[in-house]
Specification:
By secondary structure, this protein is α/β, with parallel strands linked by helices. It has a domain of 151 residues: Rossmann fold. The protein is built from 6 helices and 9 strands; from the N terminus they run βββαββαααβαβαββ. A 6-stranded mixed beta sheet has the order 5-6-7-3-8-9, with helices on both faces. It has a 3-stranded antiparallel beta sheet with strand order 2-1-4, with helices on one face. Helix 3 crosses helix 4. The protein is globular and about 50 Å long. 42% of the residues are buried.
C-alpha cells in the first residue's frame, strides 16, 4: 500500500543470554500507515520496546523482514523520516535545551535554520523560555518534553515513543501527551506509542496488545 510508513513481515528478534536463546519478539507481521495513532500496550518485558526499536531501525530482526515503503533507503530514515522518544530524556548534558533540540537537525542537515526550527517546536510544547537552560536544571517532566521536542523538530513521518510518560506523574504525563497530540492534530504523521497507561491508550485510534513477545489482533488496527 502506498501509505504504509513501516511494515514488518514475520519479523522476529532473539538474543543469546548465557548460552540460551531468548525470544524477545515472536514472528510478527504488522503495518503502520500515514496518520495512524497506535497505542502499544502490554506488561514489561512483553516485547514492546523490541518492536519499536525494529520499526525505528535501531535494531535488525533475527529473522523476517522490515520495510519502510514511503521512505526508501534504510540509511535515510533518521532524523528526517523517523523520530524516537525513549522513557528517559537522554539529553546531552553539556548542551542547552535549544542545542539538544537542534542537534539532530544539524547532524541530518534537515533544516536551513536549525535554531529557528528548534525554537519553534520548543514554543509549541511551552518550553521556549527554557531554551538556554542545561538539562540538569530541568524537572523530569520538562526534560521529557524537551526530548519530545527533539523528536518532533525534524517533522518525521513516523514518530515512535517508548513509554515516554513512564517516569512522570499522571498530571505531567497528561500534559506531555496533550502537547504531542496537539502538534500532531490534522497531520499525516504516524504515531506509535508504547504505554502502560490506559488513559493514554484510549486516546489513540488503535490499540495493539503484546504479551510474551506476541502481538495480538489489534482493536481497529493493521497487525496480525
Amino acid at each position: 500500500m502506498p501509505d504504509i510508513v513501516v511494515e514488518t513481515l514475520r519479523a522476529a528478534r532473539s538474543f543469546d543470554r548465557g548460552g540460551k536463546t531468548v525470544e524477545a519478539l515472536a514472528p510478527t507481521t504488522c503495518s503502520v500507515r500515514a496518520g495512524d495513532r497506535v497505542a502499544l500496550v502490554g506488561p514489561s518485558g512483553s516485547g514492546k520496546s523490541t518492536l519499536l526499536h525494529l520499526m525505528a531501525a535501531l535494531d535488525r530482526p533475527s529473522t523476517g523482514e522490515i520495510h519502510w515503503p514511503l521512505f526508501g533507503d534504510h540509511d535515510a530514515l533518521r532524523p528526517g523520516q523517523i523520530g524516537m522518544v525513549f522513557q528517559a530524556p537522554s539529553l546531552m548534558p553539556p548542551l542547552s535545551v535549544v542545542e539538544n533540540v537542534e542537534l539532530p537537525l544539524i547532524l541530518g542537515s534537515t533544516d536551513s535554520d536549525p535554531r529557528a526550527a528548534a525554537m519553534s517546536v520548543l514554543d509549541q510544547v511551552g518550553l521556549a523560555d527554557l531554551a538556554d537552560k542545561l538539562p540538569e536544571e530541568l524537572s523530569g517532566g520538562q526534560g521529557q518534553r524537551v526530548a519530545m521536542a527533539r523528536a518532533m523538530a525534524a517533522h518525521p513521518q513516523l514518530l515512535l515513543a517508548d513509554e515516554p510518560t513512564g517516569q512522570l506523574d499522571q498530571a505531567t504525563g497528561r500534559a506531555l501527551i496533550d502537547s504531542l497530540l496537539g502538534w500532531l492534530a490534522g497531520s499525516r504523521i504516524a504515531l506509535v506509542i508504547a504505554t502502560h497507561d490506559p488513559t493514554i491508550a484510549e486516546r489513540m485510534d488503535q490499540v495493539w496488545r503484546m504479551e510474551h513477545g506476541r502481538l495480538s489482533p489489534p482493536v481497529g488496527g493493521n497487525a496480525r
